[in-house]
Design goal:
Layout (H helix, E strand, L loop, with lengths): L1 H22 L9 H5 L3 H15 L12 H14 L11 H10 L2 H13 L1 H14 L12 H29 L4 H30 L4 H54 L3 H42 L5 H29 L5 H48 L6 H60 L4 H132 L3 H5 L2 H25 L1
GO molecular function: tubulin binding
InterPro entries: IFT81, IFT81_CH, IFT81_N_sf
Family: Belongs to the IFT81 family.
Length: 635
Amino acid sequence: MRAESFQCANMSDQLKFIVEQLNKEPFKKNFNLITFDSLEPMQLLQLLSDVLGEIDPKHVVDIREELPEQTAKRMLSLLGVLKYKPPGGTTNLSTFRQGLVTGSKPVVHPVLHWLLQRMSELKKRAYLARFLIKVDVPAEFLQDDTVAETNRQYEELIEAFKNLHKECEQLKTSGFSTAEIRRDITAMEEEKDQLTKRVERLKKRVETVQNHQRMLETARQLRVEKEREESLAQQKQEQKNQLFHAEQRLQRVQLQLKDMRHAAVDSTPESLMKRLEEEAKFNAYLVSEKFPRDLESKKQSLHLLQKVVAEPAMGQSDLNELETKINEVNAQINQLIEKRMMKYEPLDSKFSMYRQQASIISRKKAAKAEELQAAKEELQNLEKQMSHKSNQARESNGAEVLKSDEFKRYVNKLHSKNTVYKKKRLEIAELTAEYGILQRTEELLRQRHEEILQQLQAIENKKGISGYSFTQEELERVSAVKSEMDEVKGRTLDNMSEMVKKLNALVADKKSSLAPIIKDLRQLRQMCQELTQEREERKAQYDSCAAGLESNRSTLEQEVKALREECVQEESRYRHVHCTKRILEVQLQRAKDEMKMYVSSDQQEKRKAVRELYSRMIAEQENLGKVVTDFFSFL
């Protein structure tokens, strides 16, 4: 029950998908589930034919105008080209054909679902099938030189079509668009026209200036010098980069020299020979075992990838089928390995243990070799990072990274500076204590000053002149501030008078120099207004003319497109008829030759005829059959 409910849900989802796709472009059937399910077998077959016609335009056919056998043959041929596989496999192929002829829903609905799921992919496959499915020429016809040469040219044209199609797909996916290129060309042409007009206007304006030729020559020389300056700056930057790379290479070589000297300090000839032997063994292992094995695996993977690329486009059903086959083959391989181990290598055999140990050691050896290679690469990366960091430190601080001896001297210098720092710190502590004492003294003096001020105010109140001391101090402060402000004001007025005089003189000079320019500007403004009005009129004329030309161009493009399609169809039809005519001519010529040899009086030439050849073979087989029959009757 659960399986039946799942199947019903799957069928309903399938019908929903089919109805949704048929209601979209380019079908627009306006179906719902009820109307689609109530279609007659002939209507369902016509719907399937329409879908196939959308995939391949040659199949746009009204099935009422052809016999049911022809309809089934046509649909089966296209489904075979599209690599459709019935749900039941090859066992239900006859049932599938019968259901396709009668328009059975259980047969047609899965076909529609499969086709509508991958319309774009199937359109491409049908288009390629028109040119890539080879014509099956019998072997006896290929014995003719003309037919063989034509067949060879035909295969070469197929290969050329494959290459051109690949290039076309690459161009489609490369991001280039003819419309965008045309827009860019149009925009550049408009920009070119604008620049040309601007240059002409500037030339007219410059011609009125005195010595304009000399000024133009000077401007040209200035531009040349600027370009030369830019090229020299670029060369300078390139030379800096080359110098920087050379310094880095020198540093790496110096580090290598230092490491080699450091390694040669405590080394002996025996240790050097031992190290060289280890390196030689490791390199020999890499060259003789690891690298060939890796190269072979890369070649195998490349071969598999090339086979995958050479295969035609596959759908999800093809991938699922391949996965099931792979799983079955892996299971068979595991069973064969187990049988072989049980047959040739029993559990108590010592060879299996030794073989396992050898395989474990070889795996460990390969793993250690990979670890050593990774460690060497990591060491190289760390050395590069160290040189990069040292260069960064030199660029940022202007100093090089300290080495071991220099670092020791730097540490000793830090110790001496630390001693000086401690002494200075003691002095700062003493000064801080003294500052605290002075601050306390200042507070006491301030308190005493306040007490004296209070006593003075009390005496002033007692004498009847309260606020006298405060008023006197305030008057003295205000008079001092006023005198300072008067001095500043006097200096400011002098500066302002001088500045006003300078500005008036500058304005007069500018007015005298700008007077002719303003006069020319008025004329140019009037000219600009006239040109703007003329431009608007010309632009309106241009827009109207462009609109008419655009409409004419669109109609002409549509006519050209229709004529090109018709030309392509007629050319394809002509080539097909021409090839058919050539094949029929060859067949007719072979028939004439056969008839000529058959009716010839020459017995040797007559023996070459195919009819005589097959007659002799039939007679020989009959005689052989009689001999065999007599032999069995004798037994």
